[in-house]
Write a structure and sequence with these properties.
This protein has a domain at about 45-140. Helix content is about 50%, strand content about 5%. It contains five helices and three strands, in the order αααβββαα. The chain has helices at about 1-25, 50-65, 70-80, 105-110, 120-135, and strands at about 90, 95, 100. The longest helix has 22 residues, at about 1-25. The chain is globular.
C-alpha cells in the first residue's frame, strides 16, 4: 500500500511539473504588441499634393481590402477633410479622415503607426482604412459614408 501511495504521489508530482509552465502567466516581454506597419507599404509622399494623397488612400484601401472600393475611401476622406491632412475640427477631430484626437494615440498604436501625429496623412489613412475594414463598413464616418 505504501508503495502505491508513493507511486501515485510521484505520478501526480510529475504531471503537475509538466502542466505548471502552461498555467503560468506569460512574461511581459512575450505580450503580443501590434506590429508596426512597414514603411514600404504605401510609401507615398503625401506632402507632394492632393494627387499623392489620393494615391496613398487607394493604395491602403487595396492593401487592407477596405469596404467598398478604393474610390469610396477617397470619397469619405474628401467629405471629411477635402483631402487636407491638416484639417482640424475644434470639436476634437483632425486629419484626412477626421479621427477623434482623444482616441488617436491608442488607435495609432493598435493599427501599427505608434507615435505618429494625427496630421500625418499616411498614419491617418492606415488607421482609418484598418478601422473601416475591422468594422466592415464606413459607418464610423456616418456623415460621409
Amino acid at each position: 500500500m505504501a508503495r502505491h501511495v508513493t507511486m501515485r504521489r510521484a505520478s501526480i508530482a510529475a504531471l503537475a511539473a509538466l502542466m505548471l509552465p502552461s498555467l503560468a502567466p506569460a512574461p511581459a516581454a512575450q505580450a503580443t504588441a501590434p506590429r508596426e506597419v512597414p514603411k514600404r507599404i504605401c510609401d507615398i509622399d503625401w506632402r507632394e499634393g492632393t494627387w499623392h494623397v489620393k494615391q496613398l488612400i487607394k493604395c491602403a484601401a487595396r492593401h487592407w481590402d477596405s469596404p467598398g472600393t478604393p474610390e469610396k475611401a477617397v470619397q469619405v476622406a474628401r467629405c471629411e477633410s477635402r483631402l487636407r491632412p491638416d484639417a482640424y475640427n475644434p470639436n476634437g477631430y483632425a486629419g484626412l479622415f477626421q479621427q477623434a484626437t482623444r482616441y488617436w494615440p491608442g488607435r495609432a498604436h493598435r493599427y501599427g503607426v505608434p507615435d505618429r501625429s494625427v496630421f500625418n496623412a499616411r498614419a491617418n489613412v492606415i488607421v482609418s482604412i484598418r478601422m473601416a475594414r475591422e468594422i466592415g463598413s464606413w459607418s464610423a464616418w456616418a456623415g460621409c459614408a
